Amino acid sequence: MSPVRPVAAAASIGALLLATGCGIATTGVIEAGPPGTVKVAAPDTGSLLYFVAPEGRLVPVVFVDRSDRSDSYDPLRVGPNSLIDLLAGGPDEAARAAGLRTELPARSEWPKAEEPRMFFTDSQSVRVELPITVKSLSAVARLQLVCTAVSAVRTGPETEVALGGPDGRLDPMRCVGSAD
Hints:
By secondary structure, the chain is an alpha+beta fold.
């Protein structure tokens, strides 16, 4: 017998052992904590609106104010009122085609004479007063407002936003990866 045959036989047995997985059984999906988060920076001439993806997570969508032709961008001028109105108006056609939606009441259902207002209470706190009831909003709708407000004022995720409405004020929230 030539020395090549035992080497070939040993290689075949090794390959067979590898193919059988050495007796390790398969397992199902094992949860390993919350999903990762991604920090998305808005461009210098735009802000982020947060809409809801089909699976329920928030997705930032860039809104660029095309009416500002100057070199200076003031996010508060374009900011809270306009952005929250846009958020309540729902995603544009392209975002809807991608399955995005809003959980806020339609802007047409809001009192016509009143607009949302945003106030800085200090460098890490913002208060948003809305003309709609806030306590009945879903956690996702609240988070849409909070994350959009943080984008409008261009602060970090550590900024707390307190939402208020005719029914009272909610505890401050931060823009986080989920509404849980």
